[in-house]
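Q: I'm building a small set of examples for a reading group on sequence design. Run inverse folding on the following structure and report the sequence directly after it, with nothing in between.
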């Protein structure tokens, strides 16, 4: 799905945030990229997601060497291949979530009605079928993140990249989001989650640890779940 060879990312000021990373992520796997704050995780995610081009080295996505693509071709490849989820949910303020999710299909040549139909279906899938006309400020953090995931998924990309998806959530909402990501993986989506949280990392098949922009450990555990997901619903009487 993604292959990096000796990839580097240097910023002006001389910081080598990614300092020579070779990494292959197979289709259908789930991978955690773990490391402390400042270790280069987000910079690496930007390379994996083709939001940024490397200063050196090679990156291929879904069989395409990105150095050979124009910016326009790269955006098109990104739009059909990758869904992004961020720590801050990045939902448009004041826009009902049905429309925000439908807009995830704007660049795919899908007609308006069909966009809304698929958006409703995807919101059902993340457990928000009863909240279609709510605006982000009327939702909990966990619901906002599930909306962001729905928006990333509505175009059915084979790859989902998430940067600290539970970073702004309480423990219970974080568990719901991780359960959703694991379900998506079980249904065939390749998942890459960036996190500084080991409890999150161990829920994925493979843990790649980075420090100072380099891989220092790469472990495949098969997604052992450290602590079983708690029955949050019975606590609060509903979804967090
Ligand atoms: P992480 O996500 O693991 O916290 P980042 O990839 O955000 O790490 O940052 C890695 C290093 O690169 C840090 O030292 C950070 O200060 C630096 N850095 C990140 N983005 C930029 C930028 N746009 N310009 C200059 N330096 C940056
Ligand atoms: Mg980061």
């Amino acid at each position: 799905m993604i292959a990096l060879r000796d990839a580097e990312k240097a910023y002006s000021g001389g910081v080598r945030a990614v300092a020579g990373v070779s990494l292959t992520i197979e289709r259908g796997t789930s991978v955690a990229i773990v490391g402390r704050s400042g270790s280069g995780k987000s910079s690496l995610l930007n390379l994996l997601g083709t939001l940024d081009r490397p200063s050196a080295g090679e990156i291929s996505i879904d069989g395409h060497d990105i150095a050979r693509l124009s910016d326009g071709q790269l955006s098109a490849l990104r739009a059909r291949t990758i869904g992004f989820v961020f720590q801050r949910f990045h939902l448009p303020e004041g826009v009902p979530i049905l429309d925000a999710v439908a807009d995830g299909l704007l660049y795919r040549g899908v007609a308006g009605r069909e966009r809304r139909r698929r958006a409703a279906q995807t919101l059902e899938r993340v457990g928000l079928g009863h909240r279609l006309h709510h605006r982000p400020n009327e939702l909990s953090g966990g619901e906002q993140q599930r909306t962001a995931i729905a928006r990333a998924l509505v175009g059915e990309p084979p790859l989902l990249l998430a940067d600290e998806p539970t970073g702004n959530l309480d423990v219970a909402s974080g568990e719901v989001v991780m359960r959703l990501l694991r379900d998506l993986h079980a249904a065939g989506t390749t998942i890459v989650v960036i996190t500084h949280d080991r409890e999150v990392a161990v829920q994925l098949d493979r843990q790649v640890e980075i420090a100072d922009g380099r891989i220092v450990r790469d472990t495949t555990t098969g997604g052992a779940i450290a602590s079983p997901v708690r029955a949050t619903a019975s606590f609060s009487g509903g979804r967090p």
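Helices lie at 41-48, 71-81, 97-102, 112-125, 141-153, 171-186, 198-201, 232-236.
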